[in-house]
Amino acid sequence: MQETSSGGLVVDLSTGVPRAAVICRLNRAGRAEWCLPKGHLEGEETLEEAAVREIEEETGIRGEIVETLGAIDYWFSADGRRIHKVVHLFLLKAVGGSLTVENDPDAEAVDVEWVPFTDLDTRLAFPNERRAATAATLRLGELA
């Protein structure tokens, strides 16, 4: 089975310290994992539209896409099926909103925080998301 999701790093530069809105989800074992906001496409959405919507739903922050950060893919098992998931990630500039998980329709995000880019490598649970954050760090100048 194939799944496609979209999301990414929404960045705030207003404090002088680049920071990204990241969410906390509970994994299947009930442990907290900090990760990038992302989710499935709905209807005829483009990857970009889904990223903007998912990030706003899960973090409360409206973002404007700056550029793509590429895609990550992985395999996992659920309900006795092997699933190949591809997640398209984007770099977004925060343009409004305030941090909240209250608008997450699936209630997957249990917490949200602004995390300085310098702390993303230790905060994000997944190596592929940490690599995307490192790539985004190199592009922060394009957000100014």
How would you explain this protein's 3D organization?
This protein is an alpha+beta fold and about 140 residues long. It has one domain (about 1-140): Nucleoside Triphosphate Pyrophosphohydrolase (Alpha-Beta Complex), CATH 3.90.79. It is built from 3 helices and 7 strands. Strands 1, 2, 3, 4, 5, 6 and 7 form a 7-stranded mixed sheet that branches. The chain starts with a strand and ends in a 7-residue tail after the last helix.
Q: What topology does this entry show?
A:
Layout: E1 2-12, E2 19-26, E3 32-35, E4 38-40, H1 47-59, E5 61-78, E6 81-97, E7 109-116, H2 120-123, H3 127-137
Parallel strand pairs: 1-6
Antiparallel strand pairs: 1-2, 1-4, 2-3, 2-7, 5-6
CATH superfamily: Nucleoside Triphosphate Pyrophosphohydrolase
H and E string: EEEEHEEEHH
Treating each run of at least 4 consecutive H or I residues as one helix, how many helices?
3
**Proportion of residues in β-strands:** over 45%
Tell me the CATH topology: Nucleoside Triphosphate Pyrophosphohydrolase
The portion of residues assigned to helices is 10-25%
Whole-Å distance between the termini?
Answer: 40 Å
Rg from C-alpha positions?
Answer: 14 Å
Q: Sheet bearing the most strands, described? A: 7 strands, mixed
Unreliable sequence segments: none
- Number of strand segments: 7
Identify the overall geometry.
globular
Number of domains: 1
CATH architecture: Alpha-Beta Complex
Question: What is the average per-residue confidence, as pLDDT, rounded to a whole number?
Answer: 92
For the record, the CATH class is Alpha Beta
Return the structural class. alpha+beta
Pfam families: NUDIX
Organism: Kineococcus rhizosphaerae
Family: Belongs to the Nudix hydrolase family.
Protein name: ADP-ribose pyrophosphatase YjhB (NUDIX family)
